[in-house]
Specification:
Length: 778
């Protein structure tokens, strides 16, 4: 009997809980929240949503219930603008996601086929403030925060970001795994972020996250999606895979000297981590990524037989991880740290204290800014002792002596560095302009502002590394501590050259490899939405390339045909054919001469009347007396146009065919009216010597060139000057020289360019006159 009472009590409690859950779900009606009817259109819902969202936004409405109301409005809008959710709500009074065991097609799936209650059973969007987990609130990201903080910081540490929403019950199922993983990753220095789609739709779209839940990583500003089952091991491996390859080099007895001696080439200290695990710890990889611009990292696996000599050489304790830092001396570590369970804070402090060599080479402006910071106030004054030297063997002794002096420095105010004059020529020219001599030289300087202003003092006598030079430098440094005014020179330094800029090709190859890996990863996981822009770009490039090849192939084929046809016509011409076409098959001239034929009654038909469509015959008008002079000048002016397939060149003897010339020019009266009137007044026949006609036989039009004398012969003035008496013009004509005739075609080249452009006036001829009559010379 007592057992029955207990069972009835449990069932009553269960029924009450069920009623409470159903009641809480039934109270939420998206239509009532937005104040619209069930038949409201999408436009009406959108309009009401904008008004209510603006009214109840927590930043503008100080009502304590404003945030909950704003969430209800947002969720109502999401339901009613989604056709499937709206239809489900209209039919069942709920959507698939509004009830933990919805009555839709999921049945009682969330009971896991029994009455087991997990933490998500009573987790409704309105049970807590804002509907978000309190633990996630400190990781919440906004768009501006992501762009201005996360992206720049991702070049120093990776970020793991979760995309979630209040109505995502799958997000609740992965929450325990997410929390456990985040707790461990935070201690390693991984950045964590949470994006709520309901509040940061812009950011989720920017990241390319189109479903919830989604997990993604950001490194070097690049986004990568997590595609595997959400378990801690997979998430940890995902973060490790985000890091670039080649961050940490595996070091053994064979390559340890090569690794340590590369400090001079890379201009970096080298750090060796000794540990017993076969793979590089994630913490060490993250440290290498954060300090990749300053330190080179190597890892020694103590469990390998190939590392036994290294362990003995540096007396490594195999019971705890050991970290050694090497600078210029590859035989003796500059610093050492050893501890069980080495923490991030300890490693960061160790690396921070050993980021630079004892005397690094200034290879770029960034390193110069960090080694020699700008003076801000008196207590933070820093001085740089700079050696200007060369790379040749003759400078080795002085360089080693400078390094030896730098290794004994214990004053934090002083920083030692050197530059190669050949690689930093602008900087060295400024520092050496006030003193005689050539490198090596030592300069003490202090930076005054960000614009490059410095105060400096060169050490007289140069630097060869002798004891006298060291003593002189130490005396100056001691004086500087007492009296900073000894820096009696000032200058504006130019920005340093980036000596590692030549490695751009290598960085480009690495970047291309990373993108290729990303493409393969997206293809394997069918991430077509993200792949679409890249695939579109790829296919566009292939289409353009293929189209170019096809067009070029057809173009080469057509040119080959034209070349063969042209060669056949040339052969006919050599055999006596009346065809006078130019044999050039391309724009640049291919012959060293200009082929000019005489326009006679025999060649008249083929060279003009039956000229092929689109072809033009350029005809020079001359006389027997001016033939040799004008033909020579004509050939020079038109030579650059002989490569055209549509131009032919001829000459017409006006002494023989003056009547034809007069008949043709009747159709170009506007162009020759002035000359005709002048000749009628003078009582002499019109002089057409030096005229050039461009004749289109098919379309029956001509373009006319009239000679313009541009020479500087003072004894012979051009006919166009006018203003003289009739007798003076007669004298001028009688004194016409070879030079004057030669200069008649000075402007022909410009006229030919306008002819090719099609900008010359055209004079149409109804029918070409015959050329069978020969004018009798008087």
């Amino acid at each position: 009997m007592r057992m029955v009472v207990v069972l009835l009590s449990v069932m009553m409690v269960y029924v009450l809980l069920m009623d409470a859950v159903v009641e809480s779900t039934a109270e939420f009606d998206p239509y009532k929240v937005l104040g619209v009817t069930r038949s409201a259109s999408q436009a009406e819902i959108k309009k009401v949503y904008k008004r209510l969202a603006k009214e109840w936004h927590p930043d503008k409405n100080k009502n304590p219930e404003a945030e909950d109301m704003f969430i209800k409005i947002t969720k109502s809008y999401e339901i009613l603008t989604n056709e499937e959710k709206r239809a489900s709500y209209n039919r069942y009074g709920q959507t698939d996601n509004t009830h933990p065991y919805g009555r839709g097609h999921y049945g009682f799936h969330h009971f896991h086929d029994n009455f087991y209650f997990d933490e998500s059973f009573f987790h409704f969007p309105f049970n807590n403030k804002g509907g978000r987990d309190f633990a996630d609130s400190k990781y919440t990201l906004h768009f501006n925060q992501y762009v201005n903080e996360v992206v720049p910081d991702s070049f120093k540490r990776p970020y793991l970001i979760k995309i979630t929403s209040d109505w995502c019950f799958s997000c609740i199922h992965i929450e325990p795994v997410w929390k456990e993983t985040v707790q461990e990753l935070e201690t390693l220095g991984i950045g964590i972020g949470v994006v709520d789609v309901g509040y940061e739709r812009r950011l989720s779209n920017h990241l390319g996250a189109h479903q919830t839940p989604s997990i993604l990583g950001v490194v070097n500003g690049k986004v990568s999606f997590f595609h595997y089952a959400v378990v801690k091991g997979h998430l940890m491996q995902f973060v490790e895979d985000l890091l670039p390859q080649r961050l940490v080099e595996k070091v053994t007895d064979k390559n340890n000297q090569e690794f340590l001696k590369s400090w001079h080439e890379l201009n970096k200290p080298h750090v060796l981590l000794f540990d017993q695990v076969p793979s590089v710890p994630l913490l060490f990889k993250l440290t290498a990524f954060a300090n990749k611009d300053y330190v080179q990292f190597g890892y020694v696996d103590q469990g390998l037989s190939e590392t036994a000599d290294l362990l003995r050489k540096f007396n490594i304790n195999t019971y705890a991880p050991t970290m050694l830092v090497f600078k210029e001396d590859v035989e003796k570590p500059a610093d050492i740290i050893q501890a069980k369970g080495m923490k991030k804070q300890i490693i960061d402090e160790f690396i921070s204290n050993n980021r630079f060599l004892l005397a690094p080479r200034l290879v770029n402006q960034k390193l110069f800014d960090e080694l020699c910071p700008v003076k801000q106030f008196h207590r933070r004054r820093k001085y740089c002792v700079l050696l200007i030297t060369g790379e040749e063997e003759s400078f080795a002794t002085g360089n080693e002596a400078f390094l030896s002096l730098a290794s004994t420095n214990t004053n934090d105010v002083l920083r030692f560095a050197y530059v190669y004059q050949r690689r930093q020529q602008p900087l060295c020219d400024v520092l050496l302009q006030n003193k005689d001599g050539t490198p090596p030289q030592v300069v003490i300087l202090e930076r005054r502002n960000e614009a490059g202003k410095i105060l400096y003092k060169p050490i007289l006598g140069g630097w060869n590394g002798s004891k006298e030079d060291k003593h002189k430098l130490l005396e100056e440094l001691e004086r500087l501590q007492k009296d900073p005014s000894i820096l009696n020179y000032d200058a504006i330094l130019p920005e340093l050259n980036n000596e590692f800029a030549s490695m751009f090709l290598i960085r480009w190859i690495y970047t291309a490899f990373d993108y290729l890996s990303e493409i393969i990863d997206d293809l394997l996981h069918n991430n077509w939405r993200e792949m679409m822009p890249l695939m579109s770009l790829l296919f566009s490039a292939l289409f353009i390339l293929f189209g170019t090849v096809v067009i070029q192939a057809f173009s080469d084929s057509s040119e080959e045909k034209q070349r063969k046809a042209k060669s056949n016509e040339t052969a006919k011409t050599e055999n006596g054919s009346p065809n006078t076409s130019n044999t050039s098959s391309s724009r640049p001239p291919k012959k060293s001469f200009v082929e000019v034929t005489e326009l006679t009654d025999i060649t008249y038909t083929s060279n003009l009347v039956k000229l092929r469509p689109g072809h033009i015959n350029v005809v020079l008008v001359l006389t027997d007396a001016t033939k040799n002079i004008l033909l020579s000048k004509f050939a020079k002016e038109v030579y650059s146009f002989t490569g055209s397939l549509t131009l032919h060149f001829s000459f017409l003897n006006v002494d023989k065919h003056g009547e034809w010339m007069t008949a043709v020019l009747e159709y170009a009266q506007d162009a020759v009216q002035i000359d005709t009137d002048e000749d009628e007044v003078s009582g002499r026949k019109a002089d057409y010597t030096g005229y050039v006609l461009a004749l289109n036989g098919h379309k029956k039009y001509l373009c006319l060139f009239k000679p313009v004398y541009t020479g500087e012969d003072l004894d012979s003035k051009p006919e166009e000057e006018g203003g003289g008496s009739r007798s003076r013009k007669g004298v001028a004509r009688s004194r016409s020289t070879t030079l004057q005739i030669h200069h008649k075609l000075d402007r022909l080249g410009l006229w030919m360019e306008r002819l090719m452009e099609g900008t010359l006036p055209r004079y149409y001829v109804p029918a070409w006159p015959g050329l069978d009559k020969i004018t009798v010379n008087k």
